[in-house]
Design goal:
Two copies of one chain form a homodimer. The first copy, chain A, is globular, with a radius of gyration of 24 Å. The longest helix of chain A has 21 residues. The two termini of chain A are 17 Å apart. In chain A, helix 1 crosses helix 10, helix 2 packs antiparallel against helix 6 and helix 2 crosses helix 10. In chain A, the strands form six sheets. In chain A, strands 3, 7, 8, 9, 10, 11, 12, 13 and 16 form a nine-stranded mixed sheet that branches. In chain A, strands 20-19-21-22-23 form a five-stranded mixed sheet, sandwiched between helices. With 440 residues, chain A is an alpha+beta fold. At the A-B interface, strand 1, strand 2, helix 2, strand 3 and strand 4 of A face strand 1, strand 2, helix 2, strand 3 and strand 4 of B.
């Protein structure tokens, strides 16, 4: 993509409304724009990151055997009256009355609707286990929307729902999602920690939150430092392996959010106890028959008995993750995108588009990247050199290649690695090699 | 995908609520399910088609130089009050009051919001032309939702918005979209016809509808038969060519929807006048300064003058197209998917999963397809043979491969082509070749 054909409305100054780094940086980097309190438009750069996070999530859900569907944003109130949550949800639920005076609502979550789909279509244990997921916009009418997309009102969530014939199988489904979450956050360049968690309005008796550490996180968390080294347990495991063993090993180390923290218990741990802040990016629940009973979602089990199906639900905060990843990856100059979710792999900066040689070399590199499916943003604008370099740091792609009149004369170009802030000088030929080796 | 791991709740009987073939077939093929009047959940098979249509649309929008963003579903009322459409839109607009008594609405279209994004970020002609698009759910509170996803209340639309410095450039942007639409509908396996159209509540002075022909269409259309042969004008053209010439040639033939039809004019045409029914799948508008003036979206032009920006908007009915494509492609047995948008390329039907040889051959073919990135659905269920074959016809993938005990013994397998209802007998070796040649 050439910058002059793109829409990247960067801002030099810190926007007044933003408190935390990710919010400041998303606004400054032209990734999003608020349309009204807690509701955002995603501009091109933000949309690309959102898509990458969504795709990584979907691929791992598919790997784990979940099947994608798409439920609507607007739901009928009847289902929530059936489950008993219509009143409970209170003011956070955006309630709507349509032209025929029918009560609707903007779904804050989908347990009721998925249970309705299940009961309309599945009657036998033979069709189980089943895990259905979707990625859809949700709405929670927060008292105080803040922190940009981290705590917006309209937000994108991946939510999966598992259906099983009994508790044992339901735990197996839960375990698959536990493992999937450890894998998928890693694939976004993050280091997730799973923690015992409260179940809140979703309910149930078994629940874990997936937390990424960040000074600006809203959750107060306690965990055994050894957990930071346990990710590889999940990297190697396949979904058909013994997941319980792996999860037991992981959860034998202490980790709890504030609500579940038991100081006495945490004092007996072997490793070092860390108390810090974190951002919740995923949450999984087993809640058995909590929804299937009131909604009458029954199946005939292996013994010919009619039972309410066992369920769990599994959420990933897709839009929140964009902010979360920035909270965990930035410096004073801007964002430092992990390769896995970066909107573009490289800023190709033509310092002087009026210089024919600069433009020739830039175009050559640009075409080369395109041929090799490397997503580059060619800065062909007429901004000042200082401004170009500052913008490249702000938008934070992993690599910057700088083409200037001096370099053209001496066949020496700068490659800057955003993360380490190191610079390599390279001839044009070496540059092609470097691109192939590091950016594909 | 193996059917036993999938969620494909097919129905044998015609659902009572459905009138037109696409609605009947989508419900019977387990593609979607209504949650409340005019609001649907997309089940796995339906979601796959929706994704394919969305992707084809996006690729062509990108080819035409448009840039993807994502605006939210919920909009503030202020912008609509500014444009003067808040009252005009009447009961079709889903109006919402949030917990702070603020008036919101579920966007039925996005002219106001995109104009707001534009005015907040762009001040100079130097940043134009610009075309921003998104694919997002919309809501229109129809008096009488019907025909399934063809006229639902919550529907998925691709809408693009162009911004230009003057009328000439705005027409160039309009022409690009005209050509893009002719290309993208073709890429969905359709034969679109562009027709002069009314502008309705969007406004403006130049507008075309893109129609696909169907007996069950809601639009009454009149056109010169020769237009059916004019698609190739657009197949060959590139976006940098002289588009006006190409469009002038195409639009010199008579084509108009009912509202724009002039019987006198249509009598003078050279070719045969066809009057039939069609489905509107796209609609493009040039409306100049209709929104930029009231919303004060101004730019400094080349002469240093402050002017209201020239705009157009361009919609593709993504969810409606799923129904539209089925209306144009089905028979008494079920859907006949065009290859371009089919959810799976092939039904691989194991007639007897209890037969070890059948299962061995089926698995071999299944793995082969997976390795070659051919999306197959392996029917490994224990349904009766008759039921399996009926389901394969109903869900309508382009190819069926039938593995039965007799065939295993004689090394002879049936390949059925859904569209022509022809059957080829083939050895296993020939089958691998056939798959490679026809399904990749």
């Amino acid at each position: 993509m050439k910058l002059t054909n793109y829409f990247l409305p960067v801002k030099k100054d810190k926007p007044k409304e933003a408190e935390i780094p990710s919010h400041v940086l998303m606004l400054r980097a032209g990734m999003c724009q608020q349309s009204t309190s807690g509701i955002y438009s995603w501009l091109p750069l933000g949309k690309k990151v959102l898509d990458k996070i969504e795709n990584i999530t979907k691929v791992e859900m598919n790997n784990a055997g979940a099947v994608e569907i798409l439920m609507p944003t607007i739901q009928p109130s009847e289902l929530w009256i059936e489950s008993g949550r219509y009143q409970d949800y209170g003011k956070e639920m955006l309630r709507i009355v349509d032209r025929n005076k029918k009560e609707l609502l903007y779904g804050p979550t989908n347990e009721e609707l998925i249970t309705d789909i299940f009961r309309n279509n599945i009657q036998s244990y033979k069709d189980l286990p089943l895990n259905l997921y979707h990625v859809q916009w949700k709405f929670r009418d927060e008292v105080r929307p803040r922190f940009g997309v981290m705590r917006g009102r309209e937000f994108l969530m991946k939510d999966a729902y598992s259906f099983d014939t009994n508790l044992d199988n339901a735990i197996k489904s839960y375990n698959k999602m536990f493992v999937a979450y450890m894998k998928l956050f890693k694939k976004m360049g993050l280091r997730p920690i799973a923690m015992k968690a409260d179940t809140g309005p979703i309910g149930g008796d078994l629940s874990h939150e997936f937390i990424i550490l960040s000074k600006t996180g809203e959750s107060n968390v306690y965990f055994d430092k050894s957990l930071l080294e346990m990710q590889e347990l999940f990297d190697k495991i396949n979904y058909n392996d013994n997941l319980q063993e792996c999860i037991d090993k992981y959860t034998s180390f202490y980790a709890a959010t504030e609500e579940k923290h038991i100081p006495k218990e945490s004092k007996n741990i072997l490793g070092e106890l860390i108390n810090t802040k974190g951002i919740e990016v995923g949450h999984i629940f087993h809640f058995g028959q909590k929804y299937s009973e009131p909604l009458n979602a029954t199946i005939t089990n292996e013994n010919g008995k009619n039972i309410s199906v066992y369920m769990g639900s599994y959420g990933v905060g897709v839009s929140r993750l964009v902010g979360g990843i920035i909270e965990a990856n930035h410096d004073s100059k801007g964002i430092i995108w992990p390769k896995e979710v970066t909107p573009f792999m490289c800023s190709l900066i033509n310092l002087n588009p009026d210089n024919k040689e600069c433009t020739k070399i830039s175009t050559k590199l640009y075409e080369y990247c395109k041929e090799n499916n490397i997503d580059v943003l060619l800065d062909d604008s007429k901004e000042s050199i200082g401004s170009k370099l500052a913008i490249a740091d702000l938008i934070g792609f992993p690599f910057q290649i700088i083409i200037g009149p001096k370099g053209v004369k001496t066949d020496s170009y700068e490659i800057k690695i955003r993360k380490t802030d190191t610079t390599i000088n390279s001839s044009l030929n070496e540059l092609f090699n470097y691109i192939c080796k590091n950016m594909v």
